[in-house]
Amino acid sequence: MLTVVAEICVKPGRRHVVLEAINKLIPTVLEEEGCHQYDALVDHQAQVPWKQNSPDSIFMLEQWESLRHLEQHQQMPHMDTHRAIIKDDVVDVKILVLEPTR
């Protein structure tokens, strides 16, 4: 099982627009073969000195059965459509693909 953490950095003030598009996409992705989790998370506004703040980011927390399933997900037509919808609001995307250590 692979865990994906993706940070979608958006233009200031546009997070809600991208989040709406992601929320519409989630049910479709959850139906994909090998997808066990696909959640959108946003920065919790806590004023503590040790926390990094990311008010213009959306974090995707995903669980995929294998790299093959994740690669298939990236090539799905609904993902191409989704990327086209949000492209003008997204500044950068950082993707981590993680595996358990035991």
Describe the structure using short key phrases.
single chain, alpha+beta, four-stranded antiparallel β-sheet, 3 helices, about 35% strand, globular
Walkthrough of the structure:
With 102 residues, the protein is of the alpha+beta class. The protein is built from 3 helices and 4 strands. The protein has helices at residues 15-30, 67-74, 77-86, and strands spanning 2-10, 35-42, 57-64, 90-98. Helix 1 (15-30) runs antiparallel to helix 3. The longest helix has 16 residues, at 15-30. The model has no long low-confidence stretch (mean pLDDT 96).
Shape: globular
What is the first-to-last residue Cα distance?
11 Å
- Describe the sheet with the most strands: 4 strands, antiparallel
Q: State which percent range the strand residues make up.
A: 25-35%
DSSP summary: helix tally: 3
Number of strands: 4
Order of strands, main sheet, comes to 2-3-1-4
Let me know the average pLDDT.
Answer: 96
Low-confidence stretches: none
- How are helices and strands ordered from N to C? EHEEHHE
Please give the radius of gyration in angstroms: 14 Å
Structural class: alpha+beta
| Percent of residues in helices | 25-40%
